[in-house]
Design a protein that fits this description.
Blueprint (H helix, E strand, L loop, with lengths): L1 E6 L9 E4 L2 E4 L7 E6 L2 E5 L6 H8 L9 E3 L5 H4 L2 H7 L5 E4 L6 E7 L3 E6 L6 H4 L4 E4 L3 E4 L2 E5 L7 H11 L1 E5 L2 E4 L6 E7 L2 E5 L7 H11 L5 E6 L8 H13 L4 E4 L5 H11 L3 E3 L5 E3 L1
Parallel strand pairs: 5-6, 6-7, 7-10, 16-17, 17-18, 18-19
Antiparallel strand pairs: 1-4, 1-20, 2-3, 4-5, 8-9, 8-13, 11-12, 12-15, 13-14, 15-16
Length: about 290
Amino acid sequence: MKIQILIDNIAGSSDCDINRADGVQKLCPEWGLSALIEFNGNNILLDTGASAKFAKNATALGVDLSKVDAGVLSHAHYDHANGMRAFFKANDHAPFYLRKAALENCYHTHKIFGIITYQEYIGIRRGTLKRFADRIRFADSDTEILPGVFIVGHKDCVLDAAGRAAIGLRAHFAVKENGKYRTDSFDHEQSLVFDTPKGLFVMNSCSHGGADNIVKEIEAIFPDKKIYAILGGFHLFRTPDSQVRAFAERLRDLDVQKIYTGHCTGGRAYEILHEVLGDRAEQLHTGMAIEI
């Protein structure tokens, strides 16, 4: 199994310069995440970042997006979905899997002076789902999309919709349904799971439902499997240090062997994770390659 981080907030070493026979190529970071996973002879793309930059980075890294066999959108926010059009331009056949609840309806709630509320659109670029309807597959259940590769939605048995909505309220996230806004309970979020010889490798790009809860969800779906690793952002960049430390301790107690995190985790939160988890925790960056 090989994972190539096509884009992340962090540039990486030497401003992400890479040396190739045809000259030095510079990789572009941005607020977002995209990864290409080679697994059992198949290529799976997780997310597309906030723009077409992930595709430019893929070219610089020698990754051929036309050979991707399946795409997966972790959730319906722009910083993971807005490169979808660039992917469909580069690849004319791979299905792209979204949660059934993943629509063009995600917002960030702002308050001016604590009184005036306005909603900022942060969803999938409008018109994308209709324009590429022939390429998009909506899943409303846990699905094996390729041999040993699964997409898994949130499970109420771990944290119910009300509990997830409480997280959404703290993060000021909303969705618009039938002309009205409600707090986001992240029904549009899903995990990408690989059944590897070392155990399950779980990926969830922002882990809005809580990375520790996500680990428990996967354990509930695969009770006979050990979870080896989790990769993604943990949405901790505005979280107080004490809460980050408590989260890190919960993750440690779940006995996940490797934690690869970046994007919305945040630099200070990563420092705390590394203090608690030691070498189990690694910082993601644009251009990073992981092999297991």
